[in-house]
Amino acid sequence: MRLIYQLALEGDGTTGQMGVKNIVSYLNKRRIFTRDDGRWGIGQVHRILTRRTYMGEHEFNKRSKTKELKPVSEIVVVPVPPIISRETFDTVQALLKARHPRVTPSAVISGPTMLTGLIHCAKCGGAMTIRTGKGGRYRYYACSMKARQGPTACTGMAVPMEKLDDLVASHLEERLLQPERLETILATVLDRRQERFERQREHIAELNRRAAESEARLRRLYDAIEAGVADLDDPALKDRIVGLKAIRDQAKADAERAQALLQNAGSKAVTPEMLSKSAKAARQRIRLDGGGYRRDHLRALAQRVEVAEGEVRIMGSKSRLLQTLVSGDGVNAVPTQGPKWRRRRDSNPRDPFGGLLI
What is the distance between the terminal CA atoms of the chain, rounded to a whole angstrom? Predict the structure, then answer.
């Protein structure tokens, strides 16, 4: 199971992230069979990638006898030992959603260019796409709005593809992918993460108190029954006992589930060693041959690149960057929206063909 999640997030080290079909082909080609010694299918792999049991939440009573999904209120969630972290599971879900053809065209997912789907014209906000010149010898990123509707829609510029690709990769290496810079960027995110953990611990303590109070009340009722003060055949007493048991059991189950999730979420602290290792791996991988593979890793660091006259702006999510660091050794990529680690002109602006704003 862990291999399937690893292939979805990181690939096999040479191909980049894999979709469900590619994972099926990978497993069958290498004769990695199912538990029943059968070949893998798309449905089986998709179910594994979307089943919450593997991250510690097993769902009972999910479907009726007719196989129809029941309302969420009728589903019973039971904590089980997790195989993967919640961060890994959530990242895979976002990746599956992002890869859906209705969300992201297949050309953007598997296209050969490094910045496909990331690069935009700063003047109109439209996507920049590949244009060629001199019989295909030269390739440029050009504003798609200008290409489709002419200069009245946008006067956007064209940028040599190889030069811009190298520029973006170089500045990510030199300005972002340094441990000291990453520590500064992630400081506020880590503080918020710690505050969230503290709130979760307080919630767990409250659940444990609720369970203990219910248990104490039950003991007092049992003592009263043994002393002959209360009548066990009293319907009101029976209802009271049933109600207290339900409150106690539910509070215990909720506390155990919350504790398991908290331990799982906090099992990987972001250390200086992890920052150094992740930064080194990212610097290597965004330089590998193959635009699609490099783009997968670049998207873990930045989700939008804007080209304007005199500057190029790179934007990304602090939360996404932190998720990348704690999810594993590899850099995986799911385009998301969120707080930006670079919003305004708070760094040194440079010429777009000699430097970037980061």
Answer: 38
Please count the structural domains in the chain: 2
For 77, phi then psi, to 5°, come to -105, 125
Round to whole Å and give the CA distance between 268 and 319: 15
Q: Report the phi/psi class of residue 144: left, alpha or beta, with left for phi > 0 and alpha for psi in -120 to 50.
A: alpha
- Structure letter (DSSP) for residue 176: I
State pLDDT tens for residues 165-204. Answer: 888 888 888 888 887 887 777 777 777 777 778 888 898 9
> Cβ atoms within 10 A of the Cβ of 10, count?
22
pTM for the full predicted model? 0.48
User: Is the residue at 45 inside a domain?
Assistant: yes
Six-digit token pair at 205?
Answer: 């303590």
Residues 10 and 158 in one domain: no
| Domain, as residue range, for 38 | 2-100
At which residue do the structure tokens 């920052």 appear?
Answer: 275
> What is the length of the chain?
358
